[in-house]
């Protein structure tokens, strides 16, 4: 391997960075990757310069050497070729350095094109992908297509031709889909669908037969979690679900979910297909049906009885690792607002099992509310598990407060936290809230104690803990406390340096300290630090903008000079909505804020912009809201891959409510015509 990686030491690697800091170790990793025992080195190199899809300055510098290893490494050359292609693919690579990395890969187009004729089929397969990402000319692909006889390499060429020269490739890809053999047939069918070209008659059974035979598309080419998501048309899914191969039936169910995740119209068409699968002879297929229903949204309601039968077994499997089919069934009932989850969840907890469901996904319906209430009254000990699941229900759960209060002796901390989240002040919970305030610095708990008892010391104690041990997520309005916070001035003042702290938790402490000082002494001396945190962006800037919005209520002149900086934050998804509120309170018309409000609709999983739009009566956003409501594409507000449909359906409900409020308010404000 003499002469390999020439010029490696001429790069100032120590001045470049990768995922773990200095890139000074990259030369050694590249040299090890050139050897015959290079698997570990390749893995370590990948983890450093391409960590979980993120690229870095060192990645761009490494690209020419990766291209050299793709040609001359002792073994595993295809690994380097695949890596190069993925580094230039926005489906797989991201980060501030991506444009430079992609440009570096494009600079390697000539050697990557040359690898289309490599002696190793695995290298040729990878080269079709990498060369396509680097901008290969169609002629080079057609030249290789004419002679390529390896099925996997030919499949990769089919996908490449579909991207690079779709019009000219339509006939060849149609022929390949029908008669290319399993690997080529599957790839050609995907290539045609991706560019909107139709399939020749007879393609559907041929492609499903290819899947039965184990055909796949190499993962770098995929655009979703699985390659066959591209095939999720109604007809193809039908054929996959009828296959004699249970793995194909499972894949068909997965494809059905993927289609439902992408299109609002899909569940009503596709979910009924699972009816025939409920009694499938293969247990894995039956389990996959439950996973489909878990992700299907309201369309799963037609199968609620079946789901409830599975959920009834939850006490027997609640202690099992991972997400069992029974766990998923309980989640489905949660989201449907079906009360039949209550008994098995409580029974599992009574057996000593510990588990956690996402509380925000437990839907409050009259039936669920009545069942939970009855359970709390009959079995107060069940509050230990139920309290954590009802805390997000808000004012609609007020009927539960007496039963929850009665359960405090059985599950004090859990019930007290639920009452706090529900916004329900309850004297019996004060001892628990006081403990949370003084020990954990929980400001919401401290303020609840103050509301019920008039005490201010508990708030002071909570603020002291939050300032000395790290500010929590709560940033309450402290303006009415005034001189009661004077004893905290010596604790808070050192945070007001006029410079943003280096890390987010410290910046949050700076904003909380600014709230304390502003409440006691006014805004003047806190503004330099608040301005610095605002300019730093991300979530601390959101808290800074929230403080500015509060200050603008009493003394807008004191913060008016920050308007340009607030406008700068309108492009930051983490602080944009708080900046909008602050600007509105400074007198900026909502017509000027409609665009960032509209962009912010998808921030924070769609939770924050709609209440703000209603608060500001931003009628200018109505066309955007209507478009979001009427389109067939999912909104993309889910925080979990399993919750795309549910989150979008809830988002649609909230949009409808917001539109109703805006229209009613607008109608109410119209002048009367005499």
From TrEMBL:
Top-level taxon of origin: Bacteria
Do you know which InterPro entries this protein is assigned to? ARM-like, ARM-type_fold
Q: What is this protein called?
A: HEAT repeat protein
